[in-house]
Each structure stands twice: as structure tokens, then as C-alpha cells.
Automatic annotation (TrEMBL):
<keyword id="KW-0805">Transcription regulation</keyword>
<dbReference type="InterPro" id="IPR016032">
    <property type="entry name" value="Sig_transdc_resp-reg_C-effctor"/>
</dbReference>
<dbReference type="GO" id="GO:0006355">
    <property type="term" value="P:regulation of DNA-templated transcription"/>
</dbReference>
<dbReference type="InterPro" id="IPR039420">
    <property type="entry name" value="WalR-like"/>
</dbReference>
<dbReference type="InterPro" id="IPR000792">
    <property type="entry name" value="Tscrpt_reg_LuxR_C"/>
</dbReference>
<dbReference type="InterPro" id="IPR011006">
    <property type="entry name" value="CheY-like_superfamily"/>
</dbReference>
<dbReference type="InterPro" id="IPR001789">
    <property type="entry name" value="Sig_transdc_resp-reg_receiver"/>
</dbReference>
<keyword id="KW-0597">Phosphoprotein</keyword>
<protein>
    <submittedName>
        <fullName>LuxR family two component transcriptional regulator</fullName>
    </submittedName>
</protein>
<dbReference type="Pfam" id="PF00072">
    <property type="entry name" value="Response_reg"/>
</dbReference>
<feature type="domain" description="Response regulatory">
    <location>
        <begin position="4"/>
        <end position="119"/>
    </location>
</feature>
<keyword id="KW-0238">DNA-binding</keyword>
<keyword id="KW-0804">Transcription</keyword>
<dbReference type="GO" id="GO:0003677">
    <property type="term" value="F:DNA binding"/>
</dbReference>
<feature type="modified residue" description="4-aspartylphosphate">
    <location>
        <position position="55"/>
    </location>
</feature>
<feature type="domain" description="HTH luxR-type">
    <location>
        <begin position="150"/>
        <end position="215"/>
    </location>
</feature>
<dbReference type="Pfam" id="PF00196">
    <property type="entry name" value="GerE"/>
</dbReference>
Amino acid sequence: MTIRVLLADDHELVRAGFRIILDAQSDIDVVGEAENGAIAAQRARELTPDVVCMDVQMPVLDGLEATRQVTSSTDAAVIMLTTFDREDYLFAALEAGASGFLLKNSSPEKLVEAVRTIAAGDALLSPEVTRRVIQRFSAPAPAAEARPIAAPQLDLLTERESEVLQLVAQGMSNSEIAATLFVGDATVKSHVSKILQKLALRDRIQAVVFAYENGVVVPRA
């Protein structure tokens, strides 16, 4: 199946470079471009891409607000692309609904891998970024703060799914979870998909946040 991609960046040369890299792949088709966030949101609705490669800083409407509009009105997944390795952009992008975060100085191979990963329904964050997310949401709560009340949706999970969720929240990949539980990668992938469906979560990153917010994993003191 061909992956349909929309490129959103206010620099024409950047868009041209991304187009050359992605169009060279037999399974990827760049279906459109946008020079600002407002146009990106509009073309995402019109062109129905599978993936939007979205710059953070753009005129008229920035990439963060454009991402909110895209993820709320279409089925497209968004990869945030930026030259700035800043935590405020990272967490704002995730809160806006982005499924991945990639620096513009990443290799062409990383860009292609990112598009394929996001199109397959998985979240894409580098190990370093994943660690930041976990650190952000796993900071020990003050002693006087009550343990969070678990969401009722957790009752929908089987015992094995709950176990997988705990390991996902620790930042483990599917392969690492499979090795820990002595099962196959495909089995873990199936469990993760069911967890996301039952908990109405977009991706693994949301699952990490959900797990810590609902006491599935207790932050280390």
C-alpha cells in the first residue's frame, strides 16, 4: 500500500529536499505541500494523506495549532519536524496530537523510517526523546499527594494486557517486552494494539502518560 504524505514547511528548499527523499521510495507518494499551518490543515482535509510532515515554526498558523486541527478533523498522523531540540516544543507537539518528533538534521533514512513507522500506526520518538517523556511524567509525587485514582477503562484490560502496559510505560520496545514475557514480537504488537483500542489512546506515548497518571506504574522515589 502506498503511503500518502503531505509536506508542511515554510521553506521551499526544505520541502523540495523532503520530496526528493520520499518520492524516491516506491511505497511513498508525496501528494501535496503547504507553506504555512493554515494551508496544511486545509490540504490535510482535502488530500486525506496518511502522514503529515509538519514544521513547528510557520507563518499564519504554527505547526502546533495546525497539528491540533489536523488530528481533530482527519485520520492523518503527524510527524513534527524541527531544527530546535527543545523540550517545550516536544511536549507541546505531543499534547497537540503528534505521533512523532524528528529533528531536521536527521538522516534521510531516518525520515523515511519515520514516515513508514507512523503510517503503520506506531509512535516514533528517538530513545532520548522517549526518556524525556518518561522522566516528565514519572517524577515522584509529593508525599502528601494521594495516589491517582485508576481510570475505569483499566478494568477492560486482561491480566496480560495490564502487564504489557506496565512494560510499555517503562519505555520498553516490543522486542524488549517480548523477551521479558517470553512471547513473540507479533503477540506483543497485538497486545499493544488492543490496549490502545480499549483505552481509546492514540499511540504508545499516550499510553505511557496514561499509565503514570492512573497509577499503573508508580514513579520511583
